[in-house]
Amino acid sequence: MLQVLFTGTISACFEIINDEPYYAPSAYEIWLNGQHVKDGDTNVFSLFDLTPSTDYSVEVKGKEVRGKVTFRTASESCAVDVREFGAKGDGVTNDTTAIQNAINCLPKGGRLIFPAGTYLTFPLMLKNHIILQFTEGATLLGSVDRESYPIIPGVVKDQDKGKDILIGTFEGLAVPMYQALITAEYARDITIVGPGTVDGNAQNSDFWKNFESFPAARPRLIFLNHCKSVTIHGIHACNSASWQLHPFFSKDLGFYDISVSAPKVSPNTDALDPESCDHVKIVGCKFSVGDDCIAIKSGKIELGQKYNQPADHHMIRNCLMEHGHGAITLGSEIGAGVRHLTVSHCYFRNTDRGLRIKTRRGRGKNSRIDAVLFERIRMEGVLTPFVINMYYNCCDPDRYTEYVYSREELPVDDRTPSLGSFCFSNIECTDAEVAACYIDGLPEMPIEKVEFRKVKVSFAKDAKPGIPAMENFAKERCRLGLYLDHVREVHIEDVSLEGVDGEKLITDHCDEVITEGFV
């Protein structure tokens, strides 16, 4: 079965429906209006350089893949070449003024075209009802001069009503930040489409060096603050100074068939971190970065208590994650919680952790994660496939305090987070090393329910010890089985572990443990 995921004015994205994660059951040909245009092997593919307001027919033909759909591209008001505003695209000329002028002048519903070339630029600000098209061979290249990135405030005051207006943020706090290479503030109806590249160029700057002493938080590559109806399709994003794509308090977002990369050693270069966002779709994407691939967040306790805007209705499907600290992470800045998250048909390779949930005392009573489903996932070479950690000890001044690390039952108060139900289903993990799962709840607030159904984990023969979760006094583990501490309900059904050293199942302080078909 073939379905249309997204239709823009000059591009479209499609998904082949089957049970396999990320890669299609077989290679296939793609036919557009009866002509063979390209080949594919993944469940999601895209077509570019289409004509606006035009009817099309797409068919896939493969040994195990068949499907046909019709669609119509969207309309647009105009299409303008950025070079008409003076942009050179030679990689040397500073094209900032030309590009920003083009954005400012573009009529509502217009498309700004970046032909092949390298457009060196300082930070840019988008507006409503705009399409940016980075064609094949086009690269938007960030300046390496830190002084060219303005510092914008975390909060400004509404002089009429006296209320705070959120402008900048980092790691769950409203703080001053260097402006992102591409920024949209309180905007709507924006499309950024490829197949070109947006390159932060941080490897050639000082953004990855001694950044703790910077006067403001490092810039993102693309920052979307309080935006609505934004689609990013088909681009390659890379080498951001910090988080690459950071939507913040935004709604109705689509990320389709994009790739995001940064060196494995680059600091805090998360691929995609939606924070306090509502209705987010991430489909057919490929991530390989120096930190978490996807980290779903909702601020620290201050933002969580003041705005109580959870991360709600997120769907992640048919994505490939490689070489990150965590493939899919929830937290740790999770002060307003996460709810209604589904992750399916994804493929994780060589990440430190697979499905990673990190929280801690101090995230707050609104910090509740619930209604989370992970299904039909394949992991290869993931050191610890499943981690739920309520003692996360990073990113805060009190990270090493007794309040964070105490194993005693502390009073439940406004600072105490909670975790609800988590279901892990139809998942196969090969060549794990550290632990099959490491789940560590709080004695005063145990995790409510964890289910493993149709899960297989096997360990590498040359497995090396490592730390399964970032917490104080953590012990190295190697080939640890299923470890669960302070969980009210544990359900294990049709689960197999191979290569475990010691007991396959360790449940401490768990009220109810049900196993069926566990080997």
Give the SSE layout.
Elements (H helix, E strand, L loop, with lengths): L1 E6 L4 E5 L6 E10 L2 E8 L1 E4 L7 E8 L3 E7 L5 E4 L8 E5 L1 H10 L4 E5 L2 E5 L2 E2 L4 E5 L3 E5 L8 E2 L2 E3 L6 E3 L10 E2 L3 E4 L2 E6 L3 E3 L22 E4 L2 E6 L2 E3 L6 E4 L2 E6 L2 E3 L16 E6 L2 E3 L5 E3 L4 H7 L3 E7 L2 E3 L3 E6 L6 E12 L3 E6 L9 E13 L3 E6 L12 H4 L12 E2 L1 E12 L2 E6 L6 E13 L20 E6 L1 E12 L6 E4 L3 E7 L1
Parallel strand pairs: 8-10, 9-11, 10-13, 11-14, 12-19, 13-20, 14-21, 19-22, 20-23, 21-24, 22-25, 23-26, 24-27, 26-28, 27-29, 28-31, 29-32, 30-33, 31-34, 32-34, 33-35, 34-36, 35-37, 36-38, 36-39, 37-40, 39-41, 40-42, 41-43, 42-44, 43-45
Antiparallel strand pairs: 1-2, 2-5, 3-4, 3-6, 6-7, 15-18, 16-17
Q: Compute the average pLDDT.
A: 97
**Quaternary organisation:** single chain
Per the CATH scheme, the topology name of the largest domain is: Pectate Lyase C-like
End-to-end distance: 35 Å
**What summary fits the major beta sheet?**
23 strands, parallel
Query: Strand fraction band?
Result: over 45%
What form results from the Cα inertia axes? globular
Q: Give the helix proportion (percent range).
A: under 10%
CATH architecture name of the largest domain: 3 Solenoid
In the predicted model, the low-confidence regions spanning at least 5 consecutive residues are: none
Which structural traits does this protein have?
single chain, 519 residues, mainly beta, Immunoglobulin-like, Pectate Lyase C-like, 3 domains, 23-stranded parallel sheet, 7-stranded parallel sheet, 4% helix, 49% strand, globular
